[in-house]
């Protein structure tokens, strides 16, 4: 049985990715800054299949420590899903530097750090593997509501996806991204404000928020062993909001 490590898997999209991976036959390590919130997933799937670890993706020691703990519990993962992020809507002229730096640090540096440290371990063990990054439409076209810090961090994640894919391809490690538009999740109203939700929905060509399960199924597909030719790509799941 293969192991997947999902950052930010305690709630929202991450939790749905966790459940889809369990259903696809994985043992899943959830690593989140709020590990207590993930306990419902342990209850739902059982301790044999799901374990929870406290992690701050922006902290080097924390990342190394969790990778050690996951290896000890389940063995070296096959798959890393970089899903943890802070979402924030804020007018560009009002962003202060500590906020800008914090969001870049969690979203972009966190993705870099987790990917690099995971890949180093795969290489040391002479193992192939998979990395899936959760990007965003905001990283492609600036987005419709979220702030410059968030959009820039996600654009950076799409670029990291390509560079890691290029360097790791000869080592049997594929690296792909998914760029969701607004999803049917509580975080959307929490980020942009519930009052702006109807206008956001009305602006979607499909008329509907994206389904988180579509993203989760794409993660499972990208992680397949026989998907070894799929690397460096960013798959759009954005309700037709941005066609490229
Ligand atoms: N919701 C959407 O419409 C949407 C659209 C595009 C992309 N995304 C992306 O999907 C992913 C999940 O978003 P969501 O809507 O489920 O958000 P969410 O806020 O519900 O979940 C984010 C998770 O990340 C965790 N987290 C935050 N900071 C962390 C840190 N420093 N270290 C470890 N864990 C940390 C949180 O505790 C939480 O469990 C994010 O990468 C987000 O940018 C979401």
UniProtKB/TrEMBL annotation:
GO MF, one example: 3-oxoacyl-[acyl-carrier-protein] reductase (NADPH) activity
InterPro entries: KR_dom (IPR057326), NAD(P)-bd_dom_sf (IPR036291), Sc_DH/Rdtase_CS (IPR020904), SDR_fam (IPR002347)
Domain Ketoreductase, chain residue ranges per copy: 2-181
Domain of life: Bacteria
Keyword field: Oxidoreductase
CDD domains: SDR_c
Leading EC class: oxidoreductase
Enzyme Commission (EC) number: 1.1.1.100
Keyword Oxidoreductase in record: yes
Record flagged with keyword Aminoacyl-tRNA synthetase: no
Family per similarity comment: Belongs to the short-chain dehydrogenases/reductases (SDR) family.
Identification of the protein by name: 3-oxoacyl-[acyl-carrier-protein] reductase
Organism name: Acetobacter pasteurianus subsp. pasteurianus
């Amino acid at each position: 049985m293969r192991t997947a490590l999902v950052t930010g898997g305690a709630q929202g999209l991450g939790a749905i990715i966790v459940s889809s991976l369990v259903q696809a036959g994985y043992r899943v390590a959830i690593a989140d800054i709020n590990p207590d919130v993930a306990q419902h997933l342990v209850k739902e799937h059982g301790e044999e299949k799901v374990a929870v670890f406290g992690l701050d993706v922006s902290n080097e020691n924390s990342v190394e420590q969790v990778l050690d703990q996951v290896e000890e519990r389940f063995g070296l993962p096959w798959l890393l899903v970089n899903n943890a992020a802070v979402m924030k809507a804020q007018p560009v002229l009002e962003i202060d530097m500590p906020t800008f730096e914090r969001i870049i640090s969690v979203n972009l540096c966190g993705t870099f750090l987790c990917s690099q440290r995971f890949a180093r371990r795969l290489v040391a063990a002479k193992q192939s593997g998979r990395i899936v990054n959760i990007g965003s439409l905001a990283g492609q076209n600036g987005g419709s509501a979220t702030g410059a810090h968030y959009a820039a961090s996600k654009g950076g994640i799409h670029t990291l996806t390509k560079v890691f894919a290029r360097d790791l391809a000869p080592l049997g490690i594929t690296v792909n991204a998914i760029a969701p538009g607004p999803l049917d999740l509580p975080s959307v109203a929490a980020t942009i404000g519930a009052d702006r939700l109807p206008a956001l929905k009305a602006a979607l060509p499909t008329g509907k928020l994206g389904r988180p399960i579509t993203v989760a199924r794409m993660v499972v597909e990208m992680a397949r062993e026989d998907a070894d030719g799929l690397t460096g790509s960013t798959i759009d799941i954005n309700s037709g909001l941005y066609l490229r």
